[in-house]
Amino acid sequence: MVTPSERGPLPDLLIEPVVRAALLEDLGRGGDITTDSLVPPDRTARAEVVARREGVVAGARVAALAFRLLDARVIATPRFTDGQPVRAGDAILTLDGPARALLSAERVALNFLGHLSGIATETARMVAAVQGTRARIACTRKTTPGLRALEKYAVRVAGGINHRLGLDDAVLIKDNHIAVMGGITAAIAAARAHTGHMTRIQVEVDSLDQLDEALAAAPDAILFDNMSPETLAEGVRRVAGRAITEASGGITPDHVAAVAASGVDVISVGWLTHSAPSLDVSLDMRAPT
């Protein structure tokens, strides 16, 4: 698992290809014909990116990069760092520079900032909901294709942790693997024979009978899939500290506290990255300079 302290801000080298691709998608073959026909090339402007409701910021640097990629003369000054809370009306980012770049990059910048801040906002809400328990909130691989690094970063800055970043991080034996292999015992044995001593092995179980079989093979972690809080509590009792315990399956902010009360170590929530609503943000232009 990855904690916020173990990974710092994403480098521009990683996020630039994603932002550049989004700009190319929006500008198409002819560029911003609205702005180019209305705004003189030498016109400069000042603008603010403003939160329209309260939330947690993530992606301020990503948004700033969108403007700078269109024109390196744009000066983008974040007023809040990723992971900080904002209120409605707060200016997250101030911008000074060529007006054409500010207008043409607006939608791409706001798309990234709103989406990532929405993930961070909901992550922070879930982290707060399980405060006082041992559970930590983790995201999953249910991410937007091409945006995984950014979305998982948004989870981290809000106090969550990441499950696997990809298939090559660790072994996670799920129900379909078990079906193909003919059982949990055979699946864990095959994984242990194939991987090195530094690779962790986790197995998914959907019943207490499967849990007992899994524990006999001594995996590093157990993933309880779609279990009630009462069954989870019994599962945690049976594990008795012999493996990391994780709950997953349809968990939302409405019942995450009940899941955490079972005593599991980790709660993984696909909802955070595939369904969290965007934070409402806008670009407000100031008087021309």
UniProtKB/TrEMBL annotation:
The keyword Coiled coil does not apply. It is an enzyme of class 2 (transferase). Keywords: Glycosyltransferase, Pyridine nucleotide biosynthesis, Transferase. InterPro entries: Aldolase_TIM, NadC, NadC/ModD, Nicotinate_pribotase-like_C, Quinolinate_PRibosylTase_N_sf, Quinolinate_PRibosylTrfase_C, Quinolinate_PRibosylTrfase_N. One of its GO terms (molecular function) is nicotinate-nucleotide diphosphorylase (carboxylating) activity. Pathway: Cofactor biosynthesis; NAD(+) biosynthesis; nicotinate D-ribonucleotide from quinolinate: step 1/1. This is Probable nicotinate-nucleotide pyrophosphorylase [carboxylating]. It comes from Roseospira marina.
